[in-house]
Design goal:
Length: about 170
């Protein structure tokens, strides 16, 4: 199983502002996100991001299998067909059991840190948004780790935005 995380971040690594909003993320970046989802077909999200995404209808029409990761053993997903896992390792096992060879980790900062600390993240796909955000949710919001990365690709996809793809060195 190959897991790639996909995030739009401020230049200082925030994924939300102080009000938990992502209004600094551009339409061009949102298109990148949707294209990555279409290509991969399986989206794994922390319970908080899952609820934001499902309530906004962000996955509608994309033919994506959606999975939520939560510690709540009784959790009822927003859509009854969505998968529920209780740890990063179980999420990977569930995606593999569905026949996927790759999956996208779509957030948020807490689940991202859990995957990285567990050694289960293979790539990061980061859109660098033209914003500096003083307070908010960081890209990794969890246990201590130190991962080394290899830059695989970079390109400018709009007047003010760069996309970077990194491999996690294992
Ligand atoms: N800019 C971007 O690209 C981007 C991308 C994604 C999300 N976001 C934003 O990020 C915010 C949410 O991020 P967040 O860091 O606060 O939350 P999150 O990572 O989306 O969700 C946190 C929840 O996931 C579950 N979880 C995390 N690690 C787990 C583990 N190891 N085992 C079991 N369950 C685990 C827990 O759910 P329970 O509490 O139910 O146990 C935890 O409370 C939202 O506002 C969203 O809009 C931004």
């Amino acid at each position: 199983m190959h897991i790639t995380s996909v995030f739009a971040i401020s230049i200082n690594g925030m994924i939300t502002d102080e009000n938990d909003k992502v209004s600094f993320v551009t339409d061009a970046s949102f298109e990148n996100y949707k294209n990555a989802l279409r290509e991969t077909g399986c989206a794994i999200a922390g319970r908080k991001t899952y609820e934001v995404v499902q309530n906004a209808g962000d996955l509608e029409g994309l033919d994506v299998t959606s999975m939520v990761v939560t510690t709540d053993q009784q959790y009822q997903p927003v859509n009854t067909t969505d998968l529920v896992a209780h740890s990063p390792a179980e999420a990977v096992e569930l995606a593999a059991a569905q026949g996927f060879e790759k999956a996208l980790l779509i957030g948020g900062g807490k689940l991202h840190a859990s995957f990285m600390a567990a050694g289960l993240l293979d790539e990061l796909l980061l859109d660098i948004e033209p914003a500096a955000i003083g307070q908010g949710t960081p890209l990794f919001d969890g246990p201590a780790f130190h991962a080394e990365l290899e830059l695989l690709e970079f390109h400018k996809f709009s007047e003010n935005e760069l996309q970077l793809r990194y491999r996690v060195v294992k």
